[in-house]
Amino acid sequence: MIRWFDTITDEDFHLAGGKGFNLSMMHQSRLQVPNGFIILSTAYDSHIDTNGLGSKIDALLSGDNTGEISTAIQDLFVIDDMDISLKTDIMNAFKKSRQAESPSGAVLPWKIFPV
Asked: In this predicted structure, what is the pLDDT of residue 110?
């Protein structure tokens, strides 16, 4: 559920998202983008399925107050536990990136985390 920039191919756009894919392509083109890793959309899908969040989110979306709905959905992601194998993969990737000669980062659909 994690892939490094140097392993992303054209077929991975839907898994990596636009930001992760474009950073990967720039890294592979030897532009000054340090290697980093992407937490793929499959990690999100797995988290939704593992914690049964799909039905909870659908129920919340049937409400009218979008501000409260957004906060309630965010809270679902804080409350539920992340899969232990994904946690381990993320921690190992951060450790590996710290050992690299140049700085690395992690990419999620909404944020880039420098390491």
From this structure: 46
Residues whose CB is less than 8 angstroms from the CB of residue 6 and which lie 6 or more positions away in sequence, other chains included: 24, 27, 28, 35
Q: For residue 68, tell me if it sits in a domain.
A: no
Which strands, in side-by-side order, build the sheet including 105-108? 2-4, 37-39, 105-108, 111-114
- Reported as a single tens digit per residue, the pLDDT across 46-97 is 889 888 899 999 999 987 777 788 888 888 887 667 788 888 898 898 888 8
Counting the structural domains of the chain, the total is 1
pTM reported for the whole predicted model: 0.73
Collapsing DSSP states into helix, strand and coil, what is residue 55?
helix
Question: Domain of 99?
Answer: 2-51+84-114
CA separation for the pair 34, 111 (Å, rounded)? 16
